[in-house]
Write a structure and sequence with these properties.
Strand order of the largest sheet: 5-4-3-2-1-9-8-7-6
Number of helices: 12
Shape: globular
Distance between the termini: 24 Å
Order of helices and strands: HEHEHHEHHEHEEHEHEHEHH
Largest sheet: 9 strands, parallel
């Protein structure tokens, strides 16, 4: 199912989409596949596979630590594509989140081709702005991959409109200025940013990320956004667990709690 279809289905059900994030290869390739499949089975509508990267600009300490573990274990881009294929074959809607350097080194057209062949329906590019994305936009069009760019509370109305015009599938609204990580409260800037996006483009679904860590916060965000994006809180279930079985149990439990949150509130 494509991102657009996933958001459309959730909208018809009167709820938001839950996007759950996990680095590829954390703590191993096979264990990351098991984690992502467990998340999907427990209520995550979309699995955001994160390509581990040594020099992130957006990731907070939890994602950085998990990515470091994956990189130390030898995970590479080809492994990430294999993970995407396995998770997509398990029935999940999959998108990739990656910084731009690995795509450029791989070859933009070849990366888009192989990403589509693996079963991903979209890609989130946190450090690629639409102004510099002509090659990626062309490749994404060629292989029917949805493009997700980021907007933030500091985005001007002009920049907001330009960025939304280049998104397909959904736009990623960062709810606060700073790096990723669960917070004790949802950013007060998030509802206004979503309202600005809706004024600029009423039809493009909006996913809100950065800060959600429990079901109550997921419900709070689902009240005004089309999608709730959760990463650090889910990753911590595995990162802090004393053993693999406990980690999977915690991951399933939090995924179910978050899913209940997004399903209990109708987006406006």
């Amino acid at each position: 199912m494509s991102i657009a279809e996933t958001f459309g289905k959730a909208k018809a059900e009167g709820r938001a989409v839950l996007v759950g994030c996990m680095p590829a290869g954390f703590p191993t390739v096979d264990e990351s596949i098991a984690s992502m499949v467990a998340m999907a089975e427990s209520g995550c509508d979309v699995i955001e596979v994160e390509l581990p990267y040594s020099d992130p600009v957006m990731d907070g300490p939890v994602i950085q630590r998990a990515s470091d573990i994956a990189l130390a274990g030898g995970v590479r881009t080809r492994d990430t594509l294999r993970i995407i294929e396995a998770v997509a074959n398990a029935g999940a809607t999959v998108v990739l989140m990656t910084y731009w350097n690995p795509v450029e080194r791989y070859g933009v057209d070849a990366f888009a081709r192989d990403l589509a062949a693996a079963g991903a329906t979209g890609m989130i590019t946190p450090d690629l702005i639409p102004d510099e994305a002509a090659e990626w936009i062309a490749a994404a069009d060629r292989y029917a991959i949805d493009r997700t760019f980021l907007v933030s509370p500091s985005s001007t109305d002009e920049r907001l409109a330009m960025t939304l015009g280049q998104c397909r599938g959904f736009v990623y609204a960062t709810a606060l200025m700073g790096v990723t990580g669960a917070r004790t409260a949802v950013s007060s800037q998030a509802p206004e940013l979503v309202a600005r996006i809706r004024r600029a483009d009423p039809d493009l679904p909006v996913g809100v990320g950065l800060g959600v860590g429990n079901g109550a916060q997921a419900a709070e965000v689902a009240a005004f956004a089309d999608g709730v994006i959760v990463g650090s809180a889910l990753i911590r279930c595995v990162l802090d667990a004393p053993d693999r079985g406990t980690g999977l149990d915690r991951l399933r439990a939090l995924s179910a709690e978050l899913a209940e949150g997004v399903r209990g509130t109708k987006p406006s």
